[in-house]
């Protein structure tokens, strides 16, 4: 009883409101509705089932109801938590990189360690079977760095896109205030797209990504990441510089964005989120996440955040991917036994051969494959799949 109160406690204030709106009773902790389009009852039911099933298997090893990290929507946490998170991100940006300088001379700070390995692994961990497990471990490592190296006391927040799909700039993620991720980049008359970006490393430079013309293109103009200096990348470009193919050299510049609202309107909707969490198979789940959500969330941000390689340069990346991880978690949580370790997809981007490792066949990924998380950490894929085992211990609110 004492143990569960931590999870239920935060919801008590909500109870009367929940009852009057005839929503489901709070068990675990239902999301609040801080603005935007409320969560439909159908989605609430899936979220609730996920939460109940997940909490029912506790304790598993070191993960208990006492220790489980509760990941909340950026729009629902209070300003102090948001400011604490932002302060911790700046703190990582002020600490020296641990990555070997020979691998990435441009890696300056602890954020760059994450960006370096994300660039290095891009052609393996996107459009492949590793997308979900690799990013789950990556997020947990980032969350741990914020907490252990920078004193952040909460857990990783997520960007609940669906709540603001029709008007994303109203979300506290993007409203430009000092407790947001900041707003759009400066509108550049001649450099806001559309672009046809080449992805180096696959298809001998014949693979391009179409990027729509956004409404910005330049440096972020407000909020805590205004004039935020980044160093690695960009990597996906209209012309690849062969002397700096993966952007590992130092390239200090501001963080830029190029909001494309049409990537959100009518796309990052509750209906599509529901379609994802109700995917009948892991194959459909993966395809739905990639085609309905993942690509479009990145394209909405544009510029740095939309570069498949160095996207982590935009601190909003972590909120975006926590939402992807949450959708997978809710899907897994409908039937933990059969879905936790379900995997689908190839070992490389769209099953294409890698230019630098042509011997890696575009064969299917397995849960016993090793993944490279950087700094010498190479877990098995299966370690990135559970939510309350191995190094994971979290639940999305
Ligand atoms: C990634 O890093 C490894 C060394 O750990 C290197 O062999 C490989 O070429 C790198 N790949 C890319 C695309 O940078
Ligand atoms: C495309 O791939 C072919 C080999 O498959 C290569 O000869 C060519 O240089 C590549 N790049 C472009 C831009 O066509
Ligand atoms: C950001 O940089 C611009 C141009 O370098 C400068 O004019 C502006 O004062 C800076 N803003 C902040 C908040 O540092
Ligand atoms: C789901 O997303 C697709 C684009 O990927 C869009 O065409 C479709 O209208 C969306 N459906 C709903 C119901 O939001
Ligand atoms: C794996 O890659 C092959 C070859 O590109 C492709 O035909 C197949 O559809 C891919 N399978 C999955 C599950 O992505
Ligand atoms: Cu990624």
UniProtKB/TrEMBL annotation:
Protein name: Di-copper centre-containing protein
UniProt cross-references to InterPro entries, sorted A to Z: Di-copper_centre_dom_sf, Tyrosinase/Hemocyanin, Tyrosinase_Cu-bd
Record bears the keyword Lipoprotein: no
Signal peptide positions (record): 1-22
GO molecular function: metal ion binding; oxidoreductase activity
Domain Tyrosinase copper-binding: 314-325
UniProt cross-references to Gene3D superfamilies, sorted A to Z: Di-copper center containing domain from catechol oxidase
Keywords: Metal-binding, Oxidoreductase, Signal
